[in-house]
Specification:
The complex is a heterodimer of chains A (341) and B (550). By secondary structure, chain A is an alpha/beta fold. In chain A, helix 2 packs across helix 10. Classes of the chains: A alpha/beta (341), B mainly alpha (550).
């Protein structure tokens, strides 16, 4: 009987797992997920945002624990690939701000198809046609400044402004070898401004950090005055905490970075992964991301908090995972040669 | 006999398997597996490797010089003069020794960041200058910042070497010099200094090697300035797709320099025979410092202030405020403690993993070194010398090199240990074996073989003698060994950073992950927890080794 039920369940899963067809969270799925007890989530989102998502999930599903493994996108990519090469299947759900990672994993046939009901309603450019990953969150890889250290009228308005010697020793930025947001941003900026720009920028004494979550914190502490690249969401989080910083949307445009999530086909907790993935795209989780996590959401029902510049008023440099994929190693190498590891 | 062969084989494998893979991998192409010298050529031609190599060499030498300049006089002051608070000062030096250098580096980011760092904030406030408009007093994010912070945590090596050797050198020669009318200064320079020279040189070498192989400090302080060292470079080669051949080749210079320098050090220390002449010393008559007392204490105050007092104060402050760069008033909060111990998912697993690793490595390591120590010191088996050599050989392998070797050896069949705690266990066991061996052999040497022989004469078997006579006598030494290995294991970063996976994270690695996103509050909380743990354990060691003396 038990056997039969499991078979039916498997057939059922296969049927609804067809690409494009949304798969609701069913009581059977929850029961199976609770039996698994845990979902392992590798993510590049700021560790406190990740833990707040976990908390909200636990409130709804107290019997399913979330193990958060937070690191930079490129590090998440390195860890998963290294684990898979050694036949270790530890990750259930992954989130990375380097959308090209999902192309790679999909090519390797490592991802499972599963469409959360909410994600089915996303605009086409935010959905994988085969239903494997979706734009869970989005942010800008933007500029920002410390309002105590720089007057609004003096603040740089463009990337070109940053080459002014008056900013020497005042700049801070993240590293594309660590952060997917920074990599996506670097790719867009190289396209818009050329490597030449970065070589000049390096001469202006940039403090080189790793994660894009770090520069807004450094800016808030007053250690540096102007952020060359970092997460817009951490800028918002700092502003909500009354830190003296403000984002800058550069004249040349600001890189727009989507950050998908996906379930691994060899996930050790497949049902918990599905319940969790569905939760991640729910209005509730998306609204938490936007309200307390400073993120942009592509969910049609999510409301932007007041006081943030709407995306439509910002000149965006869109991300292009397909175009970036073949160039990633070259970007990292050239960047490291200019700025160090 | 078969037992000692098994022990020897196991110990040989601990070192030879990872180092063998290191050699093989460095000599072949990553993809085709064909023989190539390309990795070595790139190492010595590509500026991306030459620059870190040069940085590593000059910064390590600078640390060595800095340590000598401060620690050798400090050791002299403690060993030979009437400096007050000697006992306390020795304890504080020990405290800087116990502090993991990467924890010190975290603290120094908060103290010496050029604009928000607390010292620079104070400097700007006092001078009326403004951050960014005037140059900061110190900029910790630089090669020199790294050199200073490394020196704060390596000077205890030089101090201990020189102080111990001065304790052992009879002071008669110096007293003779004083009787013949030489000033204390002249005596110190012309008599004491030459006598202590071997220890000073040995101390320099140890300081050089320590700084050369550190990973945490350069990653925290030099990378933000765009400066790479060999260890950060090797680490960065593990980004996906990992360049294993290059990483293996880049490990070799570190290994080579270590082996050569350690050999040099042995030769230098071996020549010390002339210093211990003429029976037991009648006790040192301390040199009177007089007006120099204050400047002497000043030297200690500066060095210990930088390595202990300031960093600890800043960590405590950071752990209990919301925003570390803001004034304390209205900023106090337990938020970071709540986050680390109630919300942060990794905390439980990291503590659990760290304790499991510490306990297993300490237990296995202690059993191993006690066995080897007994077999080799009592010359029970043929080839006992080789056993002792095998136990101490890993001292020549820098942590990150061991990490590369273990990674190469155990990420593929026949034995895949990557992803389990076992691979990190092997790293800790190998790395801590020499320390454990030193400690145990000191205890064993203190037990005269005659005691055991008496047991044998009365008809007891070797095992029974061991159990009823030797074991009780060395018990405290063995406990101290266990704790020392445990401490070494829980503060390890440079090998772990290459070997951990999400499931096998340790506290040190979790702290490093938090560093990459600048979450200083939680880092301070974890640092304080780790330090408290280390000091509690050190106090235990002290308790055990002290009882042994009485």
């Amino acid at each position: 009987m038990k056997m039969l039920r499991r078979m039916l369940l498997a057939v059922g899963l296969a049927a609804v797992a067809l690409p494009g067809l949304a798969q609701e969270t069913t009581p059977a799925m929850i029961a199976a997920a609770e039996k698994e007890g845990t979902v392992v989530w590798y993510t590049s989102v700021d560790v406190k945002v990740a833990e707040s998502i976990k908390k909200a999930f636990n409130a709804q599903y107290p019997k399913i624990d979330v193990e958060v493994e937070r690191s930079g996108s490129e590090r998440v990519f390195q860890r998963i690939n290294q684990e898979y090469q050694s036949n270790i299947h530890n990750v259930d759900v992954v989130n990375s701000s380097d959308a090209s990672h999902f192309l790679f994993w999909k090519q390797q046939k490592w991802l499972a198809a599963h469409t959360p009901p909410d994600a089915a309603r996303f605009a086409a450019q935010y959905r994988d046609p085969d239903g494997m990953y979706f734009a869970w969150r989005a942010t800008l890889d933007c500029m920002a400044y410390n309002t105590n250290l720089v007057k609004e009228s003096d603040a740089p308005k463009s990337y070109a402004d940053l080459l002014d010697p008056k900013w020497k020793g005042k700049l801070v930025k993240a590293h594309p070898s660590y952060s997917g947001t920074s990599l996506t941003g670097t790719y867009a900026l190289v396209k818009a401004l050329g490597w030449d720009y970065f070589e000049k920028l390096a001469k202006n004494g940039v403090q080189q950090l790793q994660s894009t979550t770090a520069p807004p914190k450094t800016l808030a502490s007053g250690e540096r005055a102007v952020m060359v690249d970092g997460n817009e969401y951490n800028v918002f989080i700092e502003m909500d905490a009354k830190s003296p910083i403000k984002p800058i949307y550069a004249r040349e445009g600001t890189p727009f970075v989507t950050s998908p999530t996906a379930i691994f086909a060899a996930a050790p907790h497949p049902n918990a992964a599905r319940v969790f993935q569905n939760f991640l795209y729910s209005v509730k989780a998306q609204q938490i991301l936007v309200d307390t996590g400073g993120q942009r959401s592509v969910h049609p029902d999510v409301k932007e908090p007041a006081g943030r510049t709407p995306l439509k008023d910002i000149k965006l440099l869109p991300d292009d995972a397909q175009g970036m994929l073949p160039q990633i190693n070259d970007i990292k190498k050239r960047y490291t040669a200019i700025f160090g590891s | 006999m078969p037992f000692s062969i098994a022990t020897a084989t196991f110990m040989a494998a601990l070192v030879l398997v990872p180092m063998g893979w290191l050699a093989v991998t460095s000599l072949r192409d990553d993809a085709s597996k064909l023989f190539t010298l390309a990795h070595y050529r790139q190492l010595f031609v590509d500026p991306a490797f030459l620059k870190p190599l040069i940085t590593t060499l000059w910064t390590s030498a600078a640390v060595g010089v800095l340590c000598l300049a401060t620690a050798a006089p400090m050791a002299y002051l403690v060993a030979r003069t009437d400096l007050p608070f000697k006992r306390l000062l020795r304890i504080l030096v020990l405290a800087s020794f116990v502090t993991p250098p990467f924890v010190g580096a975290f603290a120094w980011v908060l103290i010496g960041g050029p604009n928000a760092g607390l010292i620079n904030q104070l400097y700007y406030a006092l001078t009326g200058l403004k951050p960014f408009e005037a140059d900061s007093l110190i900029n910790i994010f630089s090669a020199w910042g790294m050199v200073f912070v490394m020196a704060f945590y390596t000077f205890p090596y030089v101090f201990t070497f020189v102080a111990n050797s001065l304790d052992m050198i009879p002071s008669e020669l110096e007293e003779a010099s004083a009787i013949f009318g030489a000033s204390p200064w002249r005596t110190a320079v012309h008599v004491t200094l030459p006598l202590a020279m071997p220890a000073i040189l040995a101390g320099f070498i140890v300081a050089f090697l320590q700084s050369m192989t550190l990973f945490g400090v350069p990653a925290i302080l030099a990378l933000p300035a765009g400066v790479d060292t060999m260890t950060t470079k090797i680490w960065s080669l593990f980004q996906f797709p990992p360049q294993l051949g290059l990483a293996a080749a880049a490990s070799l210079p570190l290994l080579l320099v270590t082996v050569v320098l350690l050999r040099t050090q042995q030769v230098i220390m071996g020549r010390r025979g002339y210093s211990i002449i003429g029976g037991k010393s009648t006790g040192v008559r301390p040199v009177k410092l007089g007006v120099w007392k204050l400047p002497a204490l000043g030297l200690f105050a500066i060095v210990l202030g930088c390595s202990i007092v300031l960093p600890y104060a800043v960590l405590v402050r950071t752990a209990f405020v919301k925003n570390w760069a803001a004034p304390m008033a209205g900023n106090l909060s337990l938020e970071h403690w709540r986050f680390v111990f109630l919300e942060f998912s990794q905390t439980r697993a990291a503590f659990l993993n760290t304790f499991i690793l510490g306990a297993t490595a300490a237990t296995a390591g202690t059993i191993l070194v006690v066995t080897v120590g007994y077999l080799s010191l009592r010359r029970v088996v043929w080839g006992y010398r080789y056993l002792a050599f095998l136990a101490t050989a890993p001292v020549a392998i820098p942590g990150i090199v061991l990490g590369v070797g273990l990674f190469l050896a155990y990420t593929h069949s026949p034995l895949v240990l990557y992803g389990t705690l076992a691979i990190i266990f092997l790293a800790y066991l190998t790395k801590e074996m020499p320390v454990g061996y030193q400690q145990v052999s000191a205890s064993l040497k203190a037990v005269h073989p005659e005691l055991e022989e008496a047991g044998r004469i009365f008809g007891a078997t070797r095992l029974r003698t061991l159990w009823e006579i030797t074991a009780p006598l060395i018990r405290n030494g063995v406990l101290a060994t266990w704790i020392l290995i445990f401490i070494g294991a829980i503060r390890e970063l440079s090998a772990t950073i290459l070997l951990f996976t999400a499931k096998t994270k340790t506290i040190s690695v979790s702290m490093f992950d938090l560093r990459e996103s600048n979450d200083w509050g939680p880092i301070a909380v974890l640092s304080l927890t780790m330090l408290t743990l280390c000091f509690a354990l050190i106090a235990l060691v002290h308790h055990f080794t002290d009882r042994r003396r009485t």
